[in-house]
Design goal:
Length: about 350
């Protein structure tokens, strides 16, 4: 049997957008999910159980997508959401969301949520939508994006972070202007065979089940994000220590053979270790800045990890840790990430 060609990164991104889009219908999400899982070599039994498609239907959906593109996934039965509010009312609500806090209307919390917006509309306009999609559309019209509240370490020192920002910003500004200097933000993560999960959209009454592994194997990944270009450089290692850090720095130096490098990373022992400091001193063209303690959100590389996990490893049974890590790294190194560092980014 002839093997179906692998999806391109562009096709994978398009399918993921359909899955993540609140306006996608259940059938559209189910088709996109089936294609993505099949591309990740998920067992056909798991795909059938997850999507409720028959085996033949799974392959038909992928074939049609490869031939016709995204148009093959469109749900022809889907109509426009019912608009119970008038245009003038919607405009007024959007303006309220953008300019005022829920606390100004007697709510306890300062941030808008779907529940608070729904209650606000029902109390003031006597309208109650059956679907959350209508509220999502109002938030999008207000140019709001969905965020889960960030975690803040209890040991985080806000004053220390502010001082770090003030002290570091001029150095980043100078490096951004110097065409011979490249700014790299670095971090490490551990990828394991333990399955991680992310919400997906499915028709009501259907519940996803994804195979998980009883064995736990780990691989470390060193990641460097080039702030000027958005290019990621990720490397697989068995673990993290100062000797492996030096090996990775040598690989980075091959990518930037003559350029000056400004590397920002945390204060881990394998960054401060004697072998690493010896290599940096000998190189003469590498400068380092340590991020403030307990402040991972200052490091753009943290966002790269989240994007990679979302696109490659979440909801996926990892049978072979090396193959999964290689796929993860391949995605990172072939994708541009325009995340900002102290307001500076590839788009600045």
């Amino acid at each position: 049997m002839k093997r179906c060609p692998r999806l391109t990164n562009k096709q994978i991104k398009k399918l993921q957008e359909i899955v993540d889009n609140n306006q996608s219908s259940g059938p559209e999400v189910r088709k996109a999910t089936a294609i993505l899982l099949l591309n990740k070599d998920t067992s056909i039994e798991a795909i059938i159980e997850l999507t409720r498609y028959k085996r033949r239907r799974v392959y038909e959906v992928r074939h049609k997508y490869l031939v016709e593109g995204a148009s093959a996934l469109i749900d022809k039965r889907k109509g426009e959401p019912k608009k119970l509010l008038t245009k003038k009312q919607r405009e007024k609500i959007v303006k309220t969301v953008k300019q005022k806090s829920p606390q100004e209307f007697g709510y306890r919390y300062p941030y808008w949520t779907t529940g608070i917006l729904g209650d606000f509309i029902e109390r003031n306009y006597n309208v109650k939508y059956k679907s959350k999609t209508s509220y999502y559309l109002l938030f999008r019209q207000a140019k709001f994006t969905y965020h889960k509240p960030g975690r803040v370490y209890h040991k985080r020192d806000e004053q220390e972070v502010r001082k770090w920002r003030k002290r570091t910003t001029p150095a980043i500004k100078r490096a951004m202007k110097d065409k011979d200097t490249f700014i790299l933000t670095e971090d490490e993560m551990i990828l394991s065979t333990q399955t991680t999960f992310q919400k997906i959209w499915l028709p009501e009454g259907e519940y996803p089940k994804i195979e998980i592994s009883n064995n736990r194997e780990n691989r470390s990944v060193y990641g460097f994000l080039d702030i000027k270009t958005g290019q990621e450089h990720a490397f697989k290692t068995e673990r993290q220590n100062m000797y492996l850090t030096v090996k990775v720095l040598k690989k980075v130096r091959k990518i930037y053979p003559e350029q000056k490098l400004l590397i920002l990373w945390d204060g881990s022992g394998w960054h401060r270790g004697s072998e690493v400091q010896k290599f940096i001193k000998k190189d003469k063209k590498i400068k380092t800045i340590y991020f403030p303690r307990y402040s991972p959100e200052e490091n753009p590389q943290e966002h790269v990890w989240k994007s990679g996990r979302s696109q490659v490893t979440h909801n996926h049974f990892i049978e072979n840790i090396d193959r999964a890590t290689d796929e993860f790294i391949a995605y990172l190194n072939s994708t541009k990430f325009a995340y900002s560092l102290l307001g500076f980014s590839a788009l600045s």
